[in-house]
Each structure stands twice: as structure tokens, then as C-alpha cells.
Amino acid sequence: MQQHTPNSNLAAPVVLITGGGRGIGAASAKRFAKAGYQVVVNYLSNHQAAQALKQEIEALGTSCMTVAADVSNEQQVSNMFAEIKQQFGALDVLVNNAGILETQSRMDDISVERFERILRTNVISCFLCAKAAVKQMSTRYGGNGGAIVNVSSGAAKSGSPNEYVDYAASKGAMDSLTRGLALEVANEGVRVNGVRPGLIYTEMHASGGEPLRVQRLQSKIPLQRGGEAEEVAEAIFWLASNQSSFVTGTFIDTTGGL
Ligand code: NAP
């Protein structure tokens, strides 16, 4: 088993993946499961995908708990962390992966309501879950330490003009949060890092109104193809594992060179 950062528990380590029912989150859930982690899969509303994933994970010989919760809602996040504490005692790894985007458009066509929705789902969720995780993991609160991995985006650097500046801004905020939090908890046994995926084959692009966006743009990627969710999951797993024990406050761009 891939042993994780300082944790005196004899039980297998526990990972929570937000938005873990599909796409990059689901690939990450399977990657952690293969390494023997007990996996908590959070999702919003797609019960079918979450249940199918739970069966796949359990077939790998580890336990899986699914939790339907809107991670942009403070009460629902609080309930989810209480449930995890009750079931497993300690949380070792948090992957802040839940995220959304909306229809491609220019910034002057984006409403305040949409901008707020994107910020709430992509950044406030990250803040709420990271805050709850720190209170369970940090030695300051009597925890055993742990790792947080935030799933940002290459959009944080490109700004996503004419597509979704709101989404890009939410990911830029997530990067600042990652850096700041990493420095706050560095001497409390908690490492905080981020991954910035580029164009990855998942269902998310359909929400932007272009399911085949990755196929359209793949010739612009230096590696000449889109990325697979499993390739991002590998970076997430590495940042959470003890293999990256001297790494905090930084990012891995999984963008094929873009
Ligand atoms: P995806 O396939 O659309 O899956 C999104 C997941 O997030 C789903 O499981 C969904 O739940 C969940 N979710 C959405 N809103 C939620 C909420 N409020 N509370 C809890 N869960 C919520 O997305 P993906 O492509 O795997 O993206 C995962 C992350 O990678 C996102 O943060 C995204 O911004 C980032 N990213 C993706 C790409 C890409 O090219 N795909 C590129 C850069 C960054 P349900 O299953 O219940 O709907």
C-alpha cells in the first residue's frame, strides 16, 4: 500500500474526493482505491454514477462511502465531514475536485448570478472543505496531519477569453487559496498543493455547450492530444502520497505542454 503522510492510524488511510462521481474525480477515486485507501466519494446529484463507482471500488477490495452533498453549502459540508469523522475517525487526504463551468460566452454577456454561482461552486466549496479538513488533520487541532490537493485548471493562467472568464477567475482564486493555506499549515503536518489540468476528455465540456471541445483543440496541444482523467489522477495521487513529502504550496500542470 502507498502509505500516506504522518498518520498514526493502523487502519488504511481515508481520502475524500469532492465531485468524485464522474470524470477526474472518479478516476482519482479508483487510483486511491488501488493503493488501498478507504474512499469517500462526494457528488451532487448523479446517484447512478456514484453507485456504479462504489461497486467498482469495492471490487478492488477496499471500502467506499458515497455522500450526496452540495459542497458550496456550508451546512451540507459540515454534515459530510461529521459523517466521515463518525465513520472513519480521521481523514488523511482531501481532494477538492468538484467544479463546474457554464456556456461559452464573452465576459460582457455573463450575469452576476452566473459569476456568483461559479465562484460559489468552484472556490467557496474549496474554502469550506479545506477549512473543515484542516480542523480534522492539523496537529494544531490534535490531528495526525494530512494532505489537501486542489483541482484548479490551466484556465487560471490563460484566463479563458471568449469562453468562461468567470471559470478562469474561480480557478485563479483557488490557486491563491492553495498557496496561502499551504503556508499557514506547513508546520502543522498538512501539505496543500494543486493540479492544473488542461484539456481533458470528460463530460464537463458539454456544460460549456461543446462536448467535443477537446477534439477541436487537440492540435494546439504540444503533445498533440487531449488528456485522460487517469493522467490527472496520477498527479493528484502523487501530491497526496508520501512520495511528495517535501512538496507543498505548489502546482503540477497536467496540460500536455499547453
Ligand atoms: P465532470 O466530469 O463534469 O464532473 C464534475 C463532478 O463534480 C461531478 O461528480 C458532479 O456531481 C460534481 N459536482 C458539481 N457540482 C458540485 C457541487 N456543488 N457539489 C458536489 N459535487 C459537485 O468534471 P471534470 O471534467 O471531471 O472536472 C473535475 C475538476 O477538474 C473540476 O474542478 C474542473 O474545473 C477541473 N478541470 C477539468 C478540466 C477538463 O478538461 N475536464 C480541465 C481543467 C480543470 P454529479 O456527478 O452528481 O453531477
Automatic annotation (TrEMBL):
Transmembrane intervals: none
GO molecular function: oxidoreductase activity
Gene3D superfamilies reported for this sequence: NAD(P)-binding Rossmann-like Domain
Keyword field: Oxidoreductase
Family of the protein in this entry: Belongs to the short-chain dehydrogenases/reductases (SDR) family.
Name of the protein described by the UniProt record: NAD(P)-dependent dehydrogenase, short-chain alcohol dehydrogenase family
